[in-house]
Specification:
Elements: E1 3-9, H1 17-29, E2 34-40, H2 42-45, H3 52-69, E3 76-80, H4 86-95, H5 100-104, H6 107-113, H7 126-133, H8 136-151, H9 154-166, H10 169-184, E4 189-191, H11 197-214, E5 222-224, H12 259-267, H13 285-298, H14 302-308, H15 314-341, H16 343-372
Helix pairs in contact: 3-15, 3-16, 4-10, 4-16, 10-11, 12-15, 13-15
The chain binds tryptophanyl-5'AMP.
Length: about 375
């Protein structure tokens, strides 16, 4: 029997090459071998404020992207999450078997909200001075100390309090809805980028917990994270992942960007001053990111690329990376133009998809309700 695959993308921003190379391209490449369900997770998108019109636009846009990238509705089912009410219903049940402490530890929540010492908070002034004076190990210890001190301060308490006032409970609960998405379809494999690993792991924990309590209710899924492409980094700050939510447009390449824009973005990509094209994530994050992008885009191994560019300068290399990405996106953009003219077709694919997955979703939900003792 074919393995069951489930994955999803949030319509919370325009898709970028990180989404494509980290996730979608792998779905397309293994489409034949699996029984695939792909979802546009609009319920996840509303965990942060959304403009209703833009959200609808992006939901359709995401569907066009999936199709243009090569998801074939004859081989894979594609639908919008909110079209299947079973996702929310299962999420509620799973909520009651998920612990507050577990959710509090989810890094994505911490990153997005800045609650705890996340990205949105800067360390107190002293950190700048410290960085130059100590080695890594000492620095970690010192940062821990500062963190503890900082968390004890009134400023931290006030800032955190303010944050909490404007963060939805949905954002906190986001991984449980994701667990519901996955478990609803008896999923064996979840192909995602590196950043979603923790969410698939919590899904496994919740599934196992319920299975231990009530007998085998759920299939326990495995995350599938390809080494290459799993973490495409920002072009302007290669120590951060490429993200739709980034305020700096030069940090990402969108699937709809034209050739000129792509050349410009890569030309501005942050590198180092060494002028040596070698993969070294720690010492040369910028060049390593570009090598990684080129490697996945062209399906060429990184050592081969290092050899090819042994005598090139960064300018030439960046232009070539841009060229590869432009070539990779050309057929996708041509198909996008086709779907732009035939949105009714795209809507129909989504509607048919939601109907096609209904029996599976309903069957799972019935099984869970029975196991837990809901209804008569
Ligand atoms: P989202 O919408 O943030 O991202 C969609 C997919 O793209 C991957 N990705 C990346 N991969 C490599 N490099 C990057 N810079 C990069 N940025 C994003 C993500 O890992 C993801 O695979 N919570 C999910 C959506 C979701 C889901 C699910 C996924 C909801 N339910 C069930 C799988 C199964 C999310 O926010 O993805």
């Amino acid at each position: 029997m074919k393995k069951r695959v489930f994955s999803g993308v949030q319509p919370s921003g325009d898709l970028h090459i990180g989404n494509y190379l980290g996730a979608i391209v792998n779905w397309v490449r293994s489409q034949e071998e699996h029984d695939n369900v792909f979802c546009i997770v609009d319920l996840h998108a509303i965990t942060v404020p959304q403009d209703p019109k833009i959200l609808k636009h992006r939901t359709l846009e995401n569907a066009k992207m999936y199709l243009a990238a090569g998801i074939d509705p004859k081989k894979s089912t594609l639908f919008v999450q909110s079209d299947r009410p079973e996702h929310s219903e299962l999420a509620w049940i799973l909520n009651c078997f998920t612990y507050f402490g577990e959710m509090k530890r989810m890094t994505q929540f911490k990153d997005k909200t800045g609650i705890q010492l996340g990205r949105n908070f800067t360390l107190p002034d002293t950190s700048d001075r410290l960085i130059s004076n100590y080695d890594n190990k000492q620095l970690i210890a010192i940062i821990r100390e500062i963190e503890a001190e900082w968390k004890n301060s009134d400023t931290w308490r006030i800032q955190n309090k303010r944050k909490e006032e404007s963060i939805s409970v949905g954002l906190f609960d986001y991984p449980v809805l994701m667990a519901a998405d996955i478990l609803l379809y008896d999923t064996d494999e979840v192909p995602v980028g590196d950043d979603q690993k923790q969410h698939v792991e919590i899904t496994r924990d919740i599934a196992q917990r319920i299975n231990n309590k009530f007998g085998k209710v759920f299939t326990v899924p495995e995350p599938v994270i390809k080494k290459e492409g799993a973490r495409i980094m920002s072009l302007t700050d290669p120590t951060k992942k490429m993200a739709k939510s980034d305020q700096n447009e030069n940090s990402y390449v969108l699937l709809r960007d034209d050739a000129d824009t792509i050349y410009k973005k890569f030309a501005k990509a942050q590198t180092d001053s060494e002028n040596v094209i070698k993969f070294n994530k720690e010492k040369k994050p910028g060049i390593s990111n570009l090598l990684n992008i080129m490697s996945v885009a062209t399906e060429t191994k990184i050592p081969e690329l290092e050899k090819k560019y042994a005598n090139s300068n960064y300018g030439q290399f960046k232009a070539d990376v841009a060229e590869c990405v432009i070539e990779m996106l050309k057929p996708i953009q041509a198909k996008l133009a086709k779907y732009d003219k035939d949105e009714d077709y795209v809507r129909k694919v989504l509607k048919d998809g939601a109907e096609a997955v209904a029996p599976r979703a309903q069957e799972t939900l019935k099984r869970v309700k029975k196991a837990v003792g809901l209804g008569l």
